[in-house]
Amino acid sequence: MTATEATRHGSTGESPESPEAPAAQPQPAPGATPPRRPPLLAKAAAELVGTAALVAIVVGSGIQATELTRDVGLQLLANSTATVFGLGVLITLLGPVSGAHFNPAVTLAEWWTARRGGPGVALREAAVYVPAQIVGAVAGAVLADAMFGEPLVKWSTHDRSAGHLLLGEVVATAGLILLIFGLARTDRLRFAPVAVASYIGAAYWFTSSTSFANPAVTIGRAFTDTFAGIAPASVAGFVGMQLVGAVVGLALVAVIFFTPGREAGD
């Protein structure tokens, strides 16, 4: 029995074996819409708070790491480890509300699959999710700076415009989309908190860009001139390549997880 089911049975006084007990509901995750739809305001709040928390984890752990050691490898290890654990917790907590996207690339990919006949967010939801994610990302960066006594807003000077870094963002984002929607196609979204967090942790190390893979997080990280920052001049290139990666990821999902009766583009 999942924690959600246990809570439900405890509140109604029904045992799992009772004929009156409601059927178990699947647990949503990135790439999936919750089976019982919360109000749009609650979803927007979950996306804003979740993205803010994610950026605060990324930026805050980066600041902490640079204060504790000058070894860049250890700094990246600390930063990636904190992100893995934090992201897993956030997906587990907020997935049942909004699907825990925290990422415009995921939201737009899910909207596209819904438009093509698959499950996903409607245009109205996507139009609310994306601004909430961006606002949350900026708020998270400011919060992290405030916690460590840094200037609340200081544009990053960390240039990330090299071509090999842009390629890294295509790879990182394509892999993320392939993972999320591949899990959805194979009915294994219950593994998303562990799988998505683990992928991002690995991609910190195997991609040249350290795997931003998220337009909102990229924008937020421009507001902090710390370890995790990105220069504003580099943001457009990263976001553009992340969107390209999302398209590549959806194409890979259509090819690898194609089943008769589905359109290849959904």
Topology (elements, then pairings):
Layout: H1 3-12, H2 40-68, H3 72-98, H4 104-115, H5 123-147, H6 163-185, H7 192-206, H8 215-221, H9 232-256
Helix pairs in contact: 2-3, 2-5, 2-8, 3-7, 4-5, 4-6, 5-8, 6-7, 6-9
Largest sheet: none
Q: In terms of per-residue confidence, which ranges show pLDDT below 50 for 5 or more consecutive residues?
A: 1-27
Helix % is 55-70%
Total count of strands = 0
What class would the helix/strand composition place it in? mainly alpha
Q: Enumerate how many helices there are, as a single number.
A: 9
* Proportion in β-strands: under 5%
**What would the principal axes of the Cα set say about the shape?**
globular
Sketch the topology as an H/E string, one letter per element: HHHHHHHHH
Global mean pLDDT = 88
Radius of gyration: 19 Å
Distance between the termini: 32 Å
